Amino acid sequence: MTQTLRLTALDEMFITDDIDIVPSVQIEARVSGRFDLDRLAAALRAAVAKHALARARLGRASLTARTLYWEVPDRADHLAVEITDEPVSEVRSRFYARAPELHRSPVFAVAVVRETVGDRLLLNFHHAAFDGMGGLRLLLSLARAYAGEPDEVGGPPIEEARNLKGVAGSRDLFDVLIRARGLAKPAIDRKRTTRVAPDGGSPDGPRFVFAPLTIESDEMATAVARRPEGATVNDLAMAALALTILQWNRTHDVPAADSVSVNMPVNFRPTAWSTEVISNFASYLAIVLRVDEVTDLEKATAIVAGITGPLKQSGAAGWVVDLLEGGKVLPAMLKRQLQLLLPLVEDRFVESVCLSNLGRVDVPAFGGEAGDTTEVWFSPTAAMSVMPIGVGLVGFGGTLRAMFRGDGRTIGGEALGRFAALYRDTLLT
């Protein structure tokens, strides 16, 4: 029997005809051995059976329909796996260049890249149904099913979890105003946003290019020691990214504007089920720094921490729910100001760069001939012409994995590698 779920306004944000936006979320895992394809197919079937949105498809709607629905069949329509031995850099560029088809279940795609030192599993999720944490949750179910391990699914029923107003909405107008006050400074400081200087891109080249960066545990210890008191690793990572942009532009003789800003996706699942429930729970906060403030890593990190701390305390990440599902509660002027903070609506307000952090993850071994899980990677929906670089962070096995995704029309693969190397130098020296 097919279940239906009304799309949330957050889901609908990523159902777009804008050719500049490809709402694909990258999750990638590497194993020490080889995947058995029959066993992997069985694990996929078991994994999607655990999560409603993992086997959903977008329902067909008439021209006059005012509401869109997910259709959740008992079984997925199409669980194909692409197998290739092409270079993984080429596979990534091709595989993530298109978002998965929405009207076919499931709204994600799977590829296995055969390599001499272990297979790679690439998962491409449509952001309308999955955020980064949702994609990671499916990877956990897949690994556990492949290994024959139990997979207990936490969180409330899917209908309850997808009541965004209940999960993250303001309780009343007073709460809305507290959030709005926290968002006011970034909106004011966002006068002229510094854009990443183009380098090597081509309109005829790949839509996306990728540059993976690994920072080992001893290197991370060195970087973390540079944090000012009260700052998080994420604050440090954002500050380093802002500094990297300014240094990159200087080497390209491109003057900085008034501000440099980072689009920071935020998982607003409640703490009790922060890593559970596959759906789209990604809000966005703009971390805006004045260029004249960003002089060194320690100072920039302290400034970022001074911004993110109050935003977290006020629950400001829920602003997108207040705006998109707030009904008539919001005063018209406040609603318009919040609309200007949406990351996908007005190019002049899109940030310099995007950084999304899934935190530390524990993906178990797939087992059998696949062996151990040796690497986990992630990159968000972000890279577009005006914001050409998105960075996904994952802490795994004592290392920090940073996947840089670039808009290939603006920045080439070799140039993105140099940008990633500059980020590493900024963070560690």
UniProtKB/TrEMBL annotation:
Gene3D superfamilies: Chloramphenicol acetyltransferase-like domain (3.30.559.10), Nonribosomal peptide synthetase, condensation domain (3.30.559.30). It comes from the Bacteria. InterPro entries: CAT-like_dom_sf. This is Condensation domain-containing protein. The lineage of its organism: Bacteria, Bacillati, Actinomycetota, Actinomycetes, Mycobacteriales.
